[in-house]
Write a structure and sequence with these properties.
- There is one protein chain.
- The protein is an alpha+beta fold.
- The chain is built from 20 helices and 28 strands.
- Strands 6, 7, 8, 12 and 13 form a 5-stranded mixed beta sheet that branches. The protein has a 5-stranded parallel beta sheet with strand order 19-20-23-18-24.
- The longest helix has 31 residues.
- The radius of gyration is 34 Å and the shape is elongated.
- The termini are far apart.
Length: 637
């Protein structure tokens, strides 16, 4: 496919060239040598008279819909039709809005390309189209009146410019309607022709999909010309014509009714599909201050009644079919919020400032919280193809009433508050997995009530997940969803970590006073800083040195078994062999059984007791051919 570049110089002489779509995409990634596109954008931003500027500094016009050539009078003449129309979303105020529009365009597989337009405040979307039977790009047939037979012809059919204009007009109208459902801004309303064009754009990262699928455009065969020999449909038998006309009229009537239904709903409601929660949301245009609400069955039936009262013959299924279809604009509340903050960061460290509202003697807390916060935001943006999930969990430890839960709730901005929960039932594994896919932050409140077995098993497993496999309500099969949720925890007890090897996942912080929650966090700056940090490839996970630091710190908060407590009563680590002796775990365990009795040592067994001894950092260990032995010193009675 080739695009036509047209330039009329100051003397109005026509210069014409063509480029392949691939070369065009590469071309628009950089400005001209003299910076013509940026200079024109600057001229527009000053509000100067742009028409006079364009006459003084002419620039190329790009014609995407067809390849043109010059005729003898130095005028454009269509040579071949590309089957492409351009729809334009303008009025975009910043780069964040531009990125949202470009990402939305990528959702539909009709999008051939999407890039920033010449002014820098619009996105041009090239959409592939074809007549519903593909007759401008495929081999056609012809009907012979003499023989009464139909046969294939060997050359492809190319429409005339008038016919291409009809296809562009209808294709643009259909594309505008389909794409508007997913766009955050209104698509420019214009009548497209094969000669529709735009000035040279500039976009460092344009979107290009060479495998885009053509959007089928439906229209009457007569619109392509009654006298064309290739139009065999008008030569069929009269009764077949009558049948086809009747079918066309019925199809057109259904199409008009469907269009009236869609127009009514779009004029009375705002609709969007929440991709995180998995349902359509709505706003009633009669209530401009109404928040977005899930579209439930009761509201759906109310919509149907209003549609019928307006004179449109529709049923519940007709309304449901539209509002639950992919023609409704998808809305990702997480990505939209985060990208809206991207360019707002003031350069100050707001994340560590928030960490300082938590009074503690932990010298690592601010840096730990910073890394965890980046991990939380990164977790919201990842797909189900990610290898790892956010495995770190801040653990707030203090007496009751020191605002731990309030602090956890305040970490999410009001726009994302739907993603917080402090009511996770770990014994309901299906609910846990579902909330990990839909929630953003899960507070494991009253962490001390989680049993050691759950800590070392199920909880340890789900914290490491990068995706979850669940079946939607009323779904027919299990699906793979990206894990969105990160974890935070709170407890009133200090000895709560039951898994020595898994303690590296918890960022334990013991409070020295109540958390200061008097001032709400500056959410805009918090998340702007996080997005910029992630863009700059700052680490959102802990390296080996930090992990070792976390494990050493967490020994202060480990849950000690009865065996460990009795070991500390009767033994202590020895510095060298002159003051101690080498004993195996089983020998030490038997000694304690004689001293305190086997009932007090339960549920500890020798194997578990040996693992606990191995995690005492000061205790020297030696591996022999039969077992492990430890250098211990017996305490005096």
């Amino acid at each position: 496919m080739k695009l036509t570049f047209v330039l009329r110089n100051k003397k109005n002489a026509l210069k014409l060239s063509t480029k392949t779509i691939e070369k065009f995409i590469e071309r628009i990634k950089t400005d001209t040598k003299d910076g013509a596109v940026a200079r024109r954008r600057n001229q527009l931003s000053r509000g100067d008279y742009i028409d006079g500027y364009d006459r003084q500094y002419p620039s190329h016009l790009i014609y995407p819909s067809a390849v043109f050539e010059k005729d003898d009078n130095d005028n454009l003449r269509m040579k071949t039709f590309n089957g492409v129309v351009a729809i334009i979303v303008d009025g975009l105020e910043n780069k964040a809005e531009i990125e949202v529009v470009k990402r939305a365009a990528q959702i539909l597989h009709y999008t051939l390309a999407a890039f920033v337009g010449p002014s820098g405040h619009e996105v041009i979307i090239l959409v592939k189209i074809e007549r519903i039977n593909g007759t401008y790009s495929k081999l056609n047939g012809t009907y012979s009146k003499l023989s009464g037979t139909y046969s294939e012809i060997t050359q492809p059919y190319c429409p005339t410019e008038e016919e291409a204009d009809v296809l562009c007009r209808e294709g643009h109208r259909l594309a505008e309607h389909i794409y508007q459902g997913i766009m955050p801004r209104t698509i420019r309303n214009e009548t497209a022709t094969v000669r529709s064009c735009f000035r040279m754009p500039l976009d460092e990262q344009p979107y290009f999909n060479p495998k885009a699928v053509a959007l089928p455009v439906s229209e009457k065969p007569e619109a392509w010309g009654q006298n064309n020999d290739l139009n065999y449909s008008t030569n069929l038998a009269t009764n077949q014509n009558d049948s086809n006309d009747s079918e066309d009229e019925n199809a057109q009537e259904v199409s008009r009714g469907t269009q009236r239904l869609m127009d009514f709903l779009n004029s009375h409601y705002k609709l969007r599909y929440n991709t995180i929660m998995g349902y359509t949301e709505y706003k009633d245009n009669n209530y401009p201050h109404m928040d977005w609400m899930p579209l439930d069955d009761r509201t759906l039936k109310g919509m149907t009644m209003k549609v019928r009262l307006s004179g449109i013959d529709a049923r519940d299924n007709d309304v449901r079919r539209y509002v639950q279809s992919n023609m409704i604009r998808p809305h990702d509340p997480i990505a939209d919020y985060l990208w809206a903050q991207y360019y707002k960061w003031d350069g100050k460290d707001h994340i560590r400032k928030l960490a300082r509202t938590v009074p503690t003697n932990n010298p690592h807390w601010e840096d730990w919280f910073y890394t965890w916060f980046l991990g939380m935001v990164h977790q919201w943006l990842v797909s189900n193809q990610a290898k790892y999930g956010n495995q770190a969990v801040p653990l707030l430890i203090s007496i009751q009433g020191w605002n731990k839960t309030t602090f956890c709730e305040s970490l999410l901005p009001p726009e994302l508050s739907f993603g917080y929960t402090g009511n996770l039932q770990l014994d309901d594994k299906k609910q846990v997995l579902q909330q990990m896919a839909q929630m953003l932050l899960i507070n494991l409140d009253e962490f001390n009530q989680i049993s050691p077995r759950t800590q070392q098993g199920f909880l340890k497993n789900i914290i490491t997940l990068s995706s979850v496999k669940i079946k939607r309500p009323y779904g027919r099969h299990v699906e793979d969803f990206p894990r969105r949720a990160s974890f935070i925890a709170a407890t009133n007890q200090t000895d709560v970590l039951a898994d020595p090897t898994g303690s590296r996942r918890f960022l334990s912080v013991e409070l020295t006073g109540p958390i200061d929650v008097s001032t709400p966090p500056n959410y805009e700056q918090l998340y702007a800083q996080a997005m910029r940090a992630l863009h700059d490839h700052e680490p959102y996970y802990f390296g080996p040195a930090e992990t070792q630091q976390i494990m050493e710190w967490n020994r202060n908060f480990s849950m000690k078994t009865a065996g460990e407590q009795f070991f500390s009563d009767y033994f202590e680590p020895a510095a060298d062999e002159s003051e101690g002796e080498w004993m195996s775990a089983s020998a030490i365990f038997e000694f304690l059984k004689e001293k305190v009795g086997v009932s007090l040592l339960k549920p500890t067994n020798v194997a578990a007791f040996g693992r606990r001894l191995s995690n005492i950092p000061e205790l020297k260990k030696r591996v022999t051919s039969s077992n492990s032995i430890y250098l211990v010193k017996r305490k005096k009675a």
